[in-house]
Design a protein that fits this description.
Layout: H1 12-23, H2 30-58, H3 67-77
Length: 82
């Protein structure tokens, strides 16, 4: 299912930045600039969460579990049926 298009207004400085990226040929549209920026932000958040998890494991804060137990815990945490 395709995501419906949304219209957003960018502050003038961000609009100018995005338009410059398009003029420079780096992107096909301002929407592509925004989409890429949001994707990069999401990836940065995932990397940060991964780094935190690795640091916890390195500090001995990990717990042993099975894949089934882990999935049940995650499902319960997000409100899904296991």
């Amino acid at each position: 299912m395709a995501n419906p298009a949304r219209t957003i207004e960018l502050p003038e400085d961000l609009q100018a930045f995005a338009e410059e990226r398009v003029r420079a040929g780096e992107y096909a549209s301002v929407a592509d600039v925004v989409r890429d920026a949001l994707e990069q932000k999401k990836l940065a958040a995932l990397r940060h969460a991964l780094d935190e998890g690795i640091a916890e494991l390195d500090a001995g804060l990990g717990v042993e579990t099975t894949p089934d137990q882990l999935m049940a815990e995650v499902s319960a945490e997000v409100g899904l049926e296991p």
